[in-house]
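On to our target:
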Amino acid sequence: MSVTKTDNEWRAILSPEQFRVLRQRGTEAPGTGEYDKKFDAGVYHCGACSAPLYKSTTKFNSGCGWPAFFDAIPGAVARREDSSHGMARTEIVCSKCNSHLGHVFKGEGFNTPTDERHCVNSISLKFTGE
């Protein structure tokens, strides 16, 4: 079941920075997020609707300054073309509420099963430990 809210409803439950990133497709500064260097066992959920998105077993240290995952929980993340900022990129959003998570990059040569890097804003996530 999808989550649909008005901007005012989202503003009521999200901080101004969460709203900027999750609902207005913003980006937090690299190296500032709380989950970039976190490698505890658990699950990362959507910061807006709490849907489970990533298992900690798919997180890796890419050195990019944002949490990086090589794969999402099946069906949890949707992809769409993003041509903003004069670049062709693939945006990733929560499948349940369409909140912005970050971008996915392919073919960067990381030693992961998918050769993908889901570059996710920490503020777009909530972590639940095992």
Remarks:
- Residues 10 and 52 are 19 Å apart (CA to CA).
- The first strand starts at residue 42 and ends at 46.
- The radius of gyration is 14 Å.
- DSSP finds two helices and nine strands in the chain.
